[in-house]
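User: Before I run my own analysis I want an independent prediction to cross-check against. Here's the chain; please return only the structure tokens and, at the end, one sentence I can use as a sanity check.
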Amino acid sequence: MRSLLGRGARVLASEAMHLVRRVLPERPGTARVIYYHRIDDEQHRSCVTPRAFAEQMAHLRADGFHVMGLAAMREHLDAHRPFPDRTVVITFDDGFADNYTAAFPVLAKHALPATIFLAAGFIDGDELPVLRDRSGIRPMTWQQVCEMSRHGVAFGAHTLTHRSLTELPPDELEREIVGSRDMVAARVGAPAETFCYPRGHFDERVKQAVRAAGFKIACTTLPGCVTPDTHPFSLRRTFVARDDTVHDFARKLDGSFDLLHAARQRLGGAPAPSYG
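Assistant: Structure tokens:
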């Protein structure tokens, strides 16, 4: 858990970047993909509280953000067409049960599209063992997945067993990617066309394997915005953490935290935060 001093320094840095953004804003026509893991009251960085999540989704609606799905994002990328002003895409990684119990009612209330990337081999099981420092967390059931799908939530693949794809030999790489694609498609009754790299680990070989499997878009955990020229298999995203206030959330949406996130990843020696 980060200290109050660390949080204070982070907020000051983000406010400084916000002032810079006002003078030198992001190029017009960009979009931002945000991502969550759990929506729960547990004291863990990967858990955004149900109350905070509800406030953040209400902020998107009340403040006039254009919330689109990943399929619509791919259409813009194919045409190199600028995104509408203040475009946001909502995503979740892994498929925790609280995505159904806590996030789904809020998304439905505000009619917000979202995509959940499933670690498909664990769905309907007793545990979703994808967080490095936490065990015993339940995944969604396939029945819950199907109910959400019928009400506008999209589902993508996050491999079968959440392994780091850059470390796998070709046969295991294909099994994790294609196997999750087929399982999600069979259970949901619709093609699985969106993918997310576990732990954000990817390279050119992994990107080509995901493309060869027929996916249309893939998400990383690299921070930043999506431009009309972004490669569809290298989408940058913005992580939403437990201690983010609505004010922090607004700053993340305008890019004020991007440099901090990038610096944290570089200092940690990894391409992505290790939360799932």
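Sanity check: The chain has a mean pLDDT of 90.
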